[in-house]
Every structure is written in C-alpha cells, then in structure tokens.
C-alpha cells in the first residue's frame, strides 16, 4: 500500500468512527479518545473507551513518528501544509508528536499552526506575503505567497484587519479570519490604534508580554477577584510596540520617516547569540494552565538580570536611508523586484542600534521588514527575524492610515 493510500485509509477510519458515535443510544456518555488515557481498565465504560480509541490512536510510536515526519518533510507550502495540521487534529498522541516535529518559523521557515503568526520569522530568508486592500469594506487581508497573480486561489489567508474610525483616532482590529473582528472572539489576536493625526500608533497584543510586571498585575487581579473577572479583563490588550511618523514641518524632499520601538523584543535579540521571545501557544495570564513564553531555543526568558543585554532594552527599527536618483528624480531603494509601483507607502526597516551595542554591520544593514506597492490595492510584505507576522502586519497597517500633508511629501521608488 502506498503512503498516500495509507493516509486515505486513516481518513476513512476516522469517518466511520464519527458515524458510529452518532448511532450511540441516547443517554450514553460520549468519551473523547483523548480521555481514554486517564481511564482505568476496570472502570465502568472502559470497553467503550477501547472502542473509541480506534486504530489511529493505537499505532506504535515509532510508526507514528515516521508517518508524521514524512508528511512534514513532503509538504513545504500551503495548501499541502494543511496535511500537517490534519495530523495534529487526529488525537492527543498525534498532536504531541506533530508539535515536537514541527519547528518554529525561525528554524524551518514555514508557517504551520496559528501560533506561528506570533513567532519570529526566519533569520536567513524572509517570509514573502502580500496584502490585499478592500476599500469598500475597509478591510485588509494578509496572504501567504508571492502575489495574487502567482498564487491565485492557493493563497493562504494568514491575518485580516478591519479599519474602524473613531473620533479620537483609528483602530485596526486584527483577526485570524476575515469575517469576525469581535474582541470577544477567540479569533482576535490584537489591534493597532492611532492618534488623531495618524502620526503615532500603538500595537496591542491579545497576549501578555514577557514583562513580569504585566503578568504580576494579572496574577493579582485573579487572586483578588476569584471567579469574577470583568469582560474587559478577559479581552485585555498589551502594548507591545510604538510607531511614530516624523512630521516634516519644512516639507523638504524625502520619503516618510518612521520609527518603531518594539517593547516586546529586546535589542539583545539581534546581537550575536541573541534570541527573541517565542510564544508556544495562544495564552492569557488569567489562565492558570497557560504555558510560559519561551525564546527560540526553548528556554524561559530571564527577567531582572543586571547585565545590559538582559534588561529588556527594546529593539528600535528605523527607515533604511534611500538614495536620490538624478535621472529618475526620485528616492530609490532596492526591493529586489518585490515592489513595482512608486508610492509614499513603500519602506524598508532596519535596526537602529547604538555604537556600544554588540551588533555587526551586516546585522545593522539587514532589512527586517519591507513593504511596497505592486498594484492598485495589492502590496507585498516580506519580514524576517526577529519580527513575527502579526507585528509586521500591524506595522504595515500604519502606512494605510491617513497622514497629514506634511508627512506625505515624497515618493519612494523601487
């Protein structure tokens, strides 16, 4: 039997099991296959537990490991990568082995599970995405792929955002799906909020940061009000980054100037041997069983160290300086063919470090995020370590908000 036929056989077994569970007589308790591991052989209903486990949950660990490894190595991009997610959805044993095999985007360069969108990107080659703007509904959708023309219907939707205008500013609510932007939904991942002028932004994450003060305050709230948590607490937002656009009062020629202070990423992350915090699951500090944030090496980040590299000094990103092209009469940046339309929204971000920091010249010139226009409502977004897809998407959304005329003073051409 071929490997593909084997996977189809597993799917048929799963479907037969689902139909049989529906035929159980009324009043009989349904036992989840995952709960079967905690049931004793002599307990009531143990025979039903054995029936519910089925063959796919009783595979030998060595065979199961080989199956999932072959699936993970064969599928390098979406939609084929969906098979890896399907393996993790079979039962608990499959899920644990799949989570051990699939590495973070920093190490493998792939986006697999939803939590990958909040993990740092790869160090060597950037992850290439594109953003589609829908003016009628004020929504922005982030897709995995080079462009709509090349990806077509095979493009994988990663994140979606909806612009909500308010009297004091603008909010971009970011969700995992394109039709649910409620903050009370489990699809909500964060938001971007601007000031009245649209020159300063704050990125809010639905998860707490690694700062101990944030988690300690949540811990105190849980102990003070056990069993009674206000709705606004369960949907808290944690300020993880600040974006500011410089006002050009003299209106001199030049592209937009922006600065991003990444409060959730220490500057030590780009130093030699540095690591960025990497969440392992969607958690909330109000959840007693939530797993801690880990760095890319799987270690818990240190807090309270006296050394400068461990004081969580935030990473600062700035525009990469363009050059003026005399023949084209415009500012130019090398986007390596990923941007084809001149626009004031185009930008490249690099790390802004002090001379005293242990950061090489190569790391200082490395483009961490680039964003540019390729069509009327199509934009490319390429990001890499230490930014995550969520953080990069939020930074790019700030470019869509209305800016004063003093900021919109030049075009940046590729």
What labels would you give this structure?
25% helix, three-stranded mixed sheet, alpha+beta, 414 residues, twelve-stranded antiparallel barrel
Low-confidence stretches: 20-41, 48-52, 211-234, 285-310
Helix content: 10-25%
Mean pLDDT across all residues, rounded?
Answer: 75
Q: Would you report the number of β strands? A: 17
N-to-C CA distance: 53 Å
What's the overall geometry? globular
Number of helices: 11
**Tell me about the biggest sheet?**
12 strands, antiparallel, barrel
Q: Radius of gyration in whole Å, from Cα? A: 24 Å
Structural class: alpha+beta
Strand content: 15-25%
| Run of helices and strands | HHHHHHEEHEEEEHHEEEEEEEEHEEHE
- Strand line-up in the sheet with most strands: 1-2-3-4-5-6-7-8-11-14-15-16
GO biological process, one term: regulation of DNA-templated transcription
Domain F-box: 56-100
Family: Belongs to the TUB family.
Region (Disordered): 19-51
Write the layout of secondary structure elements.
Layout: H1 3-22, H2 46-57, H3 61-74, H4 82-88, H5 92-101, H6 105-108, E1 127-134, E2 139-144, H7 148-151, E3 156-165, E4 170-175, E5 188-194, E6 200-205, H8 212-224, H9 231-234, E7 238-245, E8 258-266, E9 277-278, E10 294-295, E11 314-319, E12 323-325, E13 330-332, E14 347-351, H10 361-365, E15 369-373, E16 378-383, H11 389-398, E17 412-413
Parallel strand pairs: 13-17
Antiparallel strand pairs: 1-2, 1-16, 2-3, 3-4, 4-5, 5-6, 6-7, 7-8, 8-11, 9-10, 11-14, 12-13, 14-15, 15-16
Helix pairs in contact: 1-2, 3-5, 4-5
